[in-house]
Sequence to fold (306 residues):
Amino acid sequence: MTTESESRNWLELPLDVTASILSRLGAIEILNSAQNVCSQWRKICKDPLMWRSIDMHNSGEVWDMDYDPEKMCVDAVDRSCGHLIDINLEYFCSYELLIHIAERSSHLKRLRLVSCYNISDEGLSEAALKFHFLEELEISYCSVSKNALETFGRCCPHLKSFKFNVQGCRRFHLEPDDEALAIAQTMPELRHLQLFGNKLTNDGLQAILNGCPHLESLDLRQCFNVSLGGNLEKRCVEHIKNLRRPYDSTHDYEFDAAVRDTWSSDEDDPFGISDIDLMSDDYDDYFEFSGASDFSDYDDEYLLFD
Fold:
């Protein structure tokens, strides 16, 4: 039997405590659920300071969601009123959404894009022009060329951390070092660099070591075209505090670390998604940008408590 002293009324918590608790939820949980509990929580959830960080983590089954993640993200960005400094997008992001974020978040410090197959080099480059204060960038499992990397490097002089990950593939012959050269030539202030599964060679690694003299950590796991040894390995060991070698364990890697022995017929795509898939009407329907959101416009009748 619950005594009076053991029971708690969450609505009686101080507002700052409630805000601290709600801020630990992801954007999807706040907009889909928490803000509908009562008018007090709704008010807290509209505070711009609640939206300094936006985490749109999801299962990846975008086609099976009962909400539009793009609309939801637009609403979250608008609620930040320019205070946004950190955003994580997974499995969805169109050109329109990326530009919307860039135009309303000029002080963004951290951008994370994971498996956002619908973004283009042009969209990334245009957005990068507005991210002058960016310090941390992750672009994992997205199709991006050296041109976009160069633009980020030139437009984001404060960039300290860069994660650029793809699926590892054993393909033991010469590959272009375009991406490595783009990093080396435009990101001199990097302290942390993760290139999981990248196709760079020893030449590309040498260029990065020359162009990024402040590197403290370097993750080369599943970079099978790199052959560490001799002076190259000695240089890495002497100058980099945390070095992950191509064949090091992947047990702490957050994504699927399965290795391909050969490329599929989709030669330029490391994700197993063909151009035909990306151009299909069904696929585009899931990511269509459809304007402003109405997540703020619930009637009071939808509140659970008041």
